[in-house]
Amino acid sequence: xxxxxxxxxxxxxxxxxxxxxFFILGFHIWYFFMICxxxxxxIFRHIHxxxxxxxxFMICIGFYIVHVKSEVTLVDGEAKVVxxxxxxxxxxxxxxxxxxxxxxxxxxAIYKIGDVIYIKGEVINYRHQSVPYGFDFYEYYISNQIFGxxxxxxxxxxxxxxxxxxxxxxxxxxxxxTMVLSLIFNEKSSDDEIQNQFKSLDxxxxxxxxxxxxxxxxxxxxxxxFYLDVSKQNTSLLIxxxxxIVLYLSKFDLSVIRLSLAxxxxxxxxxHELNMLSIDRLSLVFIIMICIDPxxxxxxxxxLMILILYSIELIGPLFNQERSLIRRYLISxxxxxxxxxxxxxxxxxxxxxxxxxxxxxxxxxxxxxWLVFIQPSIAVIYDPIMHMLNDLLxxxxxxxxxxxxxxxxxxxxxxxxASLVFLIYSKTFISFVKRSFIYLxxxxxxxxxxxxxxxxxxxxxxxxQGDGFLIKLDHQxxxxxxxxxxxxxxxxxxxxxxxxxILTHSDEDHTLEAQDLIDHFDVSHIILNxxxxxxxxxxxxxxxxKAGDFIELENQTIHFYNPIRDxxxxxxxxxxxxxxxxxxxxxxxxxxxxxxxxxxxxxxxxMLKSDVLKIAHHGxxxxxxxxxxxxxxxxxxxxxxxxxxxxxxxxxxxxQRLMDLNxxxxxxxxxxxxxYKYQFNHQxxxxxL
Length: 689
Known about the structure:
seven-stranded mixed β-sheet; eight-stranded mixed β-sheet
């Protein structure tokens, strides 16, 4: 009777877990609530209602717990250092205060894992997604149970104490190989690396999220133990010990937790002879994970993991008749295809060869990584293999023909998955080929029909502490400066051609992504100022511009008002020009200061009159003099500035001058990306945060 109760408890559990997956997505994208309801209505007769209600209730409680934790604004008391990363001139600490984790940036004093410290300060939340299709640091860190960073008023050591990860840190300090640090210790070097991994969905990230490397390695260990005639009981014990070691070294990485739980549930299933379906075991793993850690509701990696593993579970059996290596290749290919809609480029060559690299990483590189970790002298074998893999990937990228497409919306992704299921369950090879063309057509139709930005527009991109503007005018695209996030936005908007790349001056906070844009897009003209000799050596059609020069666009002329002369200063040599978009004249000013402003007022005066003024030098008090503001006489001011930047921009004096003149202010630190759109005599301003 007890066995029957347990069997019925887990029977067809996946049905409710699918609904739960849609329910969680609904908290992020509202229309998934509708999809969830439609799904429930369609399979209502097969649903275990009580089980589903309990799961939904748990999800709501989980979101509430996370919300309560995120409401904390002040920290004052003892905390414990649980993680740390040491850089040249500071430490990035992860502390636990009242069961909530935060980041602390410490300069001077050196702390260790386990240290008990006194800390007082204000909690600063990480930034939500502030650029269309951009990265959401807030949700990423919430998924890792980190609820912001503390701006400290006071911090000092109370006592040294042994921490849970102290031993791990000591072991890690003796490791220098990057792949060992990535695959075994799950180390990431910086926020930029995290962001780039999610954007590009690179192979190492896919291997780690899917857990295919660890799954294959454990199978290899089992096979070795079988040939060594080790009993099943001892094999289970050794595998359990191995999982515990990997969990500790990886700081309880998602894929390792999932595989460990799957192993425990499989043993439980065998012991009690429940004969659970593998898809129900997988569903039970996910239920346990979200019960233990509700922060996973915000984890992009976790949601991708669910998508990957259920795809393998549902489609993988079609490959069961294939040989082991071929099956691994097909499963790796399946992972790549399943995640294709989340990327914005397609390469058939990459799609076919990358799964082979994934198999090599899982079957050869990962086991060798452990051997190098245990015995560094093995690097003699390991290094040539890694060199060969890197060379293969570099050749693949350099000789690759890639089709880029815009960022797909959720309804487009759902259509793609429906067509993918239609493709996979083809009954004959001929039908498989026909359906493959249908799948690729559905993938490409949105891009073939997509025309980039349909209306005239200006984007003040939230690039952090720098400048980056994207302008769409008639059929032309213009980029004015490009610190960060510019390339990603242009790519996701489905833009392939840039007519003008205008770099007002050579400072890095205005030019960081310039070479990337030139390398990845068809850039017709590169506009540099005539007196700045510190630009990088860009290749292309370059024009050196000064005051009095102009550019002819399709339906208007851009006139340049600066630099009037060589000021022997990068900021004052910035290009200044006026451009008409919709109903407004926009005056773009780079980083000019009062000297250049006064010279322009004296030479051009009323010609500077504009409706919208890009405030120079991120709102510094060295710019935006009262004389210049009154001459330009704008209705609206745009300030591109980083949140909580170290320079204190924009200055209070600049903001006060703008307010005294009743100028409406948009600033990227408070409003995120600011967008002006104009079409058919209708205009609107949109903020993205």
